[in-house]
Design goal:
The chain has a single domain, classed as Jelly Rolls (Sandwich), CATH 2.60.120.200. Helices cover about 10% and strands about 50% of the residues. The chain contains one helix and eleven strands.
Length: about 160
């Protein structure tokens, strides 16, 4: 799925509830990306081949720096909340309401949200998601602690994660 919003933002939050089934190979399969590969200010969420991990990043220089990856089991339903604030360069990833892993990047002026891909890699049909996405929430700001708590509780009541 490709969507166009035609905008940029100084912070953003992405939340997904999904399950993944490993389909072989060692390449990176795209779960979510904004505005193409290796563009300054892009969100990237990848499924890393045979290691069965999900990795989150924001591109702030010539490459991505990955927040601590999450290991999943085939077919497991899990929840991911990933956010980034441009002025501070702080990105966080939280899986299943657990520990919030933080990574400090360089600060940048904005996050690109003119278009985004869900379940594919910038139009590359060889790197597609083999799994199901049950819920997706995209915010053009980071969530407050209360909002994150409420979102975690809501999704737990629906999906048990």
């Amino acid at each position: 799925m490709v969507a166009n919003s035609g905008t940029t933002s100084t912070s953003a939050t992405l939340c997904m509830v999904l399950s993944i089934v490993y389909s072989g190979g060692t390449s990176l399969n795209q779960l979510f990306a904004t505005d193409g590969n290796w563009v300054l200010g892009n969100f990237h969420i990848l499924i890393a081949g045979s290691s069965r991990t999900v990795q989150c990043s924001v591109n702030v220089n010539a490459g991505n720096d990955w927040i601590t990856p999450y290991s999943y089991t085939d077919g497991q339903i899990f929840k991911m909340i990933f956010d980034f604030t441009c002025s501070t360069g702080v990105g966080t990833a939280q899986f299943n309401g657990g520990t919030i892993n933080t990574h400090t990047y360089a600060s940048i002026s904005n996050i690109n949200i003119p278009s985004f891909d869900i379940g594919s890699w910038s139009g590359d049909n060889t790197r597609v998601l083999n799994g199901k996405i049950y819920e997706i929430f995209i915010y053009n700001r980071t969530l407050t602690t209360t909002e994150r708590t409420n979102l975690n509780a809501y999704l737990y009541s629906l999906w048990g994660v």
